[in-house]
User: Fold this.
Amino acid sequence: MSAEKGVRERTSIDDLTSGVGRPPDRDQASRPAGAGAAVIACDRLVRIYSTAGIEVQALQGLDLVVGDGELTALVGASGSGKSTLLNILAGLDTPTAGQARVAGHDLLAMTARDRLAYRRSVVGFLWQQTSRNLFSHLTAAENVALPMRLARGRAQARGRARRGERALELLEMTGVGYCAGRMPAQMSGGEQQRVAIGIALANRPAVLLADEPTGELDSESADEVFAALRTANAELGVTVLVVTHDPQVSAQVRRTIAIRDGKISTEVLRRAAADGEADVAEEYSVLDRAGRLQIPRDFIESLGMRDRVRLALEPDHVGVWPDSPGQGVKNTNEEGE
Ligand SMILES: Nc1ncnc2c1ncn2[C@@H]1O[C@H](COP(=O)(O)OP(=O)(O)OP(=O)(O)O)[C@@H](O)[C@H]1O
Ligand SMILES: [Mg+2]
Assistant:
């Protein structure tokens, strides 16, 4: 992969959700085609777990914006905070500080009742463990129809035929229509995950969150599950954020976000090239509002950077040099003078 490194500038959460103070042109240009206004916007999100007097800062001021209709992969080492972020976005956990909005819902200001409605209709969630996504005593079609029944309440129970129809449509879309009448125990792990995508989409959520949905599958099943996520994104326009350890998956999405120590560190944007040519991938570092920037570890190691670096402002970029004694900052403006 040829990756050029650049810097992505951030604006405030209000700018992003109101459409005021748009990101600079460069950012606009690099936004994947088809992605609309921000549907997920996190601003300086913090989540601290305290257990037995020990504090773990799982999210350390995380900023993230995902546009409507994007299909994004979230990658990062174990313990970097991926599940913590997904659980917050899913309304399963609450942040310690910061802001988070999903499809216009303020995740820090929701009542218990709002939260329940939010989890039923605004977001769909897919767990890694297939058994956690499906009820073992219901068929695939009944599993998909169940959230529709719960969201609509008893008064509209007569919509049963319509719910059954929609359940079948969703199963067809994820490629497991033939499993409609089967119980979970009669399906493979990959088939169960594709049914689970149907369950997650049943109430037409704005966002589909998936935490390593292919983690327990062989590569062929994983491909089928990922293809179903792509189809859901393309056909229904649902915004998809998927945590994965699988490099194959991140090669198939337009945007891959890397999380490191509870913050977004870099992102890779992939654009389709002209016919017959390889996609172009550009890697960006994230610049926060305080001007902080994470330099990729391989850059730091290859130049032996430590503790402090020298910076120089150039007409169209900023130079960063390791702090080696006796070596001044090389100013390219003075070169040749
Ligand atoms: N309920 C909890 N109580 C205390 N600490 C927790 C809890 N959940 C997560 N943590 C800690 O928060 C940090 C982030 O965990 P998280 O589960 O978000 O990581 P992850 O990126 O999903 O990792 P993995 O790839 O292993 O799933 C870790 O240090 C973890 O030990
Ligand atoms: Mg996790």
Q: What stands out?
A: The chain has two domains: 3-294, 305-337. The two ends are 38 Å apart (CA to CA).
